[in-house]
Design brief:
The protein is of the alpha+beta class and about 200 residues long. The protein is built from ten helices and five strands. It has three domains: about 60 residues, Nucleic acid-binding proteins (OB fold (Dihydrolipoamide Acetyltransferase, E2P), Beta Barrel), CATH 2.40.50; about 70 residues, DNA polymerase, domain 1 (Orthogonal Bundle); about 45 residues, Ubiquitin-associated (UBA) domain (Helicase, Ruva Protein, domain 3, Orthogonal Bundle). It has a five-stranded mixed β-barrel. α3 crosses α5 and α8 packs across α10. The longest helix is centred in the middle third of the chain and has 15 residues.
């Protein structure tokens, strides 16, 4: 079982990165959309916490920036009906703190915003994981409340789609929008600020 990989980013794609280790072996690692790894550039050193999913005809690595993200992913895939792709979809629209908050508060609507995750599945996640997550520090969640606001903001999603329609790649659009912090903005403002990041 490969639990983490250290190396340099060899190449970035829309849903994965290739990390080359010191032995010159390149690992293709699936990562959540909007992952902090997308803020890095090719050639930079990284440590990726990984979960290896072995199937009859496939072996895949799923990577995360820290152990908290990794543990949440592995909790999600214990839920009936949630595979690795479904878990990645959820973690692509909710930060770890936002996901914890959604589960703790019974917010199935936020969870069901993930592609391929319906209301019933979101409710099952809440039922199955609420007790497993245990208690958490409300102050810590408050400190990261912007994560929940921005990751789930439909305006940001629409701005990303607009940037892609202008010819930018999904990765470029996500990278630019992820750098925008502050109060909720209009689509036009997001696009203007994102274009300055390009």
């Amino acid at each position: 079982m490969i639990r983490y990989i250290k190396g340099i980013i060899y190449h970035q794609m829309d849903s994965s990165i290739i990390v080359e280790n010191s032995s010159g072996i390149g690992f293709n690692i699936m990562i959540p959309s909007g992952s902090s790894f997308y803020k890095l550039t090719d050639g930079e050193e990284v440590k990726v916490h990984t979960s290896m999913i072995v199937k009859e005809d496939d072996i895949s690595l799923y990577g995360f920036s820290d152990r908290e993200e990794l543990e949440l992913f592995e909790l999600l895939i214990t839920v009936s009906g949630i595979g690795a792709k479904g878990a990645m979809s959820i973690m692509s629209v909710l930060s770890p703190n936002a996901l914890k908050l959604a589960i703790a508060s019974g917010d199935s609507k936020s969870i069901s915003k993930a592609n391929g995750v319906g209301k019933k599945t979101a409710e099952r996640i809440i039922i199955d994981l609420k007790d497993k997550l245990g208690s958490f520090d409300e102050t810590e969640l408050d400190a990261h409340i912007d994560d929940k606001i921005f990751v789930n903001d439909d305006t940001r999603s629409e701005a990303k789609i607009a940037l892609i329609s202008l010819g930018y790649s999904q990765q470029e659009a996500e990278n630019a929008i992820s750098k925008i912090k502050g109060e909720s903005l209009s689509i036009e403002d997001y696009i203007k600020l994102a274009l300055k990041q390009m």
